[in-house]
Design a protein that fits this description.
By secondary structure, this protein is an alpha+beta fold. The chain contains 3 helices and 6 strands; from the N terminus they run H-E-E-E-E-H-H-E-E. A 4-stranded antiparallel β-sheet has the order 3-2-1-4, with no helix packed on it. The chain has a two-stranded antiparallel ribbon with strand order 5-6. Strand 2 and strand 3 form a beta hairpin. The protein starts with 6 loop residues before the first helix and ends in a 5-residue tail after the last strand. The model has no long low-confidence stretch (mean pLDDT about 85).
Length: about 120
């Protein structure tokens, strides 16, 4: 019923990013929650938000504070993106009843859907 996203992973993502925002709503809840974290993994903002059941994780400024690592990441972006898509596709094939969506937002704020699956029964 869960992918078991662990606190250690959240803390690591926060430490490597400018900001991390999670918007989530579980079955049985009337309203969702929007939580923003800083680089130390501390909650900087928390609010309620209307949304359908599910979870969205938004990471901004990945490796921004680590210019050398960011440079390596950008040089390998195509390969890294391919690995990410293969992992998500594997989950999408095996996880019945879960919808997966990957949206890429460029530096100008333009978004494009890279992967979108429908929720199967």
């Amino acid at each position: 019923s869960t992918f078991g996203f662990r606190g250690e992973a959240m803390n690591s993502i926060c430490s490597l990013s400018r900001s991390v925002t999670i918007v989530t709503k579980c079955d049985g809840e009337r309203i969702g929650e929007n939580i923003s974290y800083d680089r130390q993994g501390k909650v900087v903002e928390r609010s309620v938000q209307a949304r359908a059941r599910g979870t969205t994780v938004r990471v901004k400024g990945l490796f921004e504070g680590l210019p050398v690592r960011r440079g390596v990441f950008e040089k390998q972006l195509k390969a890294q993106r391919g690995r990410l898509f293969r992992v998500i596709q594997a989950y999408a094939i095996t996880c019945v009843g879960v919808r997966f969506s990957v949206i890429d937002i460029d530096k100008k704020g333009k978004s494009s859907t890279k992967l979108n699956t429908s929720k199967s029964k």
